[in-house]
Amino acid sequence: MGSSTDSSRFVTAFEGGRPATQVHFNPWNPANYAQTYSIYWLQRTISAHGDGSVSSDFFEELSVDGNEVTVEFPTDWSYWNGDDITAEDYFVAAEIDRYQDPEGSPIEGHELVDEYTVRRIYKDEISPTVAKLNAGYGMEAPKSVFGEYLERYQDASGESAREDVTNDLLQMTISTEEFVDQGLGSTLFKIEDFNSSETLAVKQDDHPWADRTDIEEIRVLPNVESGTQVEQLEKSNDLDMTQYIAESQRSEYPDNLQNIYELSHYNCQKYMLNWNNKHLANRSVRRAIISAIDIPSIVDAATQTGMLATPTQVQTGIRETIEEMYLGEGFTDQLIQYPVEADEETARGHMEDAGYSLEDETWVGPDGDSISFDIITQSAVAQSQPTKVFSDQLNGFGMDTEMEAIGQDYYSKLQEWEFDIAWIWHVALPFWHPSAYFSNNFYGILAGDQGSSNDTGPTGVPFSTEIPEEVGAREVGSNGVEINPAQLMTDLNGASSEEETIELTQQLVQWFNFELPSIVHMQENRGFGGDVENFSFPDPDETRLDRPNPGPWALTSGLISRN
After folding, report:
1. Same domain? 78 vs 53
2. How far is it, in rounded angstroms, from Cα 199 to Cα 296?
3. What does the pLDDT look like over 500-520, one tens digit per residue?
4. Dihedral sign (CA 173, 421, 512, 46)
5. Can you tell me the distance from the alpha carbon of 64 to that of 198, in angstroms, rounded to the nearest whole number?
6. Kind and range of the H or E element at 212?
7. Are both 480 and 340 inside the same structural domain?
8. Is 415 among the domain residues?
9. When comparing pLDDT for 425 and 7, which is higher?
10. Are 336 and 442 in the same domain?
11. Band (190; pLDDT cuts 50, 70, 90)
């Protein structure tokens, strides 16, 4: 029997989740935003699929014609507070995004056609796939809350005035208490009560999807930092939906908990290298690091915590499952093939090429400074345990490291940029497309605001640099190609054809592979299982589950019911 004493209640826990009391709901403020918690309470408008296609279970129409995208909303949806969800909610969110950098944005503007229809107009023709992927506005920024920011942007007299609005927007938070009290959620289940240990939500009987399921209540638990509490609940049969159960752990789980679906997830994980450390600013040192570490051992440390993952084979900066689709056949084989398993001889060669010498088992640079790195990671065991292995491997190679595992303030700490190396997820948007990996932020490949007066972004990555003309060359040589990675990322987001998407992706991948601004060590898979004795789950052969967060999506779409 699952955890529900009342079989009409469904109990689950959310992946990597922080307690409801420690997150907020302003999507423009990434510090402690309710990234995973919100998927239960904010209705998603589009879904990306593993094969590169896009669908919508929500919009009445989502069509692309040249440089125009037409989005039509259903007429029977409302927020929990009763406010109708209309095209204006989309308009407010999308225009706020555009106003933050109207010159650099690929969007010309948005037009409210009628109460439930909005037209999005690009400056140039846009590929239908990219346009649909980027059309997922609607629920995160209700007009009742964020309309005032749009009005301020519209009244701003210039760039400086717009920056003032942006700064205010980036500092604003909406606590979970405010989110609930103001009724800003939009999904099938409405939060009734919450604390640091759990959230209780009840089905809205007037919701358009209410008749799909007979589950009346859901109880959602955070996956606490250690991860052990949720794992213990799964093994003691106290959860009705679980993470995908790895074969190595099958014997520890009850028979009624069965795997429903395994997803080749869009996520990877990486170690971000801060080039403001003068050692990490040296390309040869970065190459020595990837040669010295043993990626399979790092990934093994993660899989021991129950994670589904495989070692990254080639440093492309995008998910392995989409490489051929967006790079073309054989392109990956032309790139620099860094060691996947530890290769100390190659690593030593890179250090010596850079003028370093080994003294008292520590690498010392040409100016006499020994290498020392501060490494930060989230304190959750699935992140801290593999990062400890990574840190120990660098220590063993002669690079002194000090690792700090940080709890709820991790993302705030990350944005102080005082680390040398930082663990971070590697995907900026929940879809399988190069722009999700080459987005100009810390989830993507952070280059920085190229409109600033600096030559580099916050992690020392230059806005203008040279890469070799020949793909896979290890040195620039006499025929270097000058590129601006931040601009290429902007261009990729607005790529107007399949050919342009591939061309831009190839250039960004070559840059990533040549320079190593980060080391992507892990190709992450996910999935979910459930209590099949007491509940029925969607059949993957009949329902598309190759989408972000398929378990929570099925639950909040009313596709899970009692047996």
Report:
1. yes
2. 37
3. 999 999 999 999 999 999 999
4. negative
5. 42
6. none
7. yes
8. no
9. 425
10. yes
11. very high
User: What is the arithmetic mean of pLDDT over 140-153?
Assistant: 96
Residue 19 DSSP symbol: P
Is there a single domain that holds both residue 206 and residue 260?
yes
* Residue whose token pair is 């663990």: 423
Confirm if 414 and 383 have CB atoms less than 8 A apart: no
Closest CA relative to residue 434, chosen from 361, 503, 514: 503
Angle between helices 143-155 and 87-99 (to 10 degrees): 40
DSSP states of 449-468 as a string?
-TTSSSSB-TTS-BSSEEE-
Tokens describing residue 417: 């940029």
pLDDT mean over 204-232 = 85
The verdict on residue 280 lying in a domain is: yes
Output the pLDDT for position 247.
Answer: 85
Token pair of 467 as six digits: 């890469």
Asked whether residue 3 is assigned to any structural domain, the reply reads no
Burial of 82 (0-12, 13-18, 19+ CB in 10 A): exposed
- Is the dihedral angle over the CA atoms 126, 130, 131, 134 positive or is it negative? negative
Which residue type does 33 have? Y
Q: Of 159, 81, 68, 155, which is closest to residue 117 (Cα–Cα)?
A: 68
User: What's the one-letter identity of residue 140?
Assistant: E
Q: How far apart are the C-alpha atoms of 244 and 258, rounded to whole Å?
A: 8
pLDDT score, position 120: 96
Match 């054809």 to its residue by tokens: 497
> Does residue 3 carry a pLDDT above 70?
no
Q: Which among 80, 77, 120 is positioned nearest to 98, based on CA atoms? A: 120
Q: What is the distance between the alpha carbons of residues 186 and 557, in angstroms, rounded to a whole number?
A: 12
Structural domains counted in the chain = 3
422-436: string of b/e by CB count within 10 Å (b at 16+)? bbbbbbbbbbbbbbb
Beta-bridge partners for 117: 72, 114
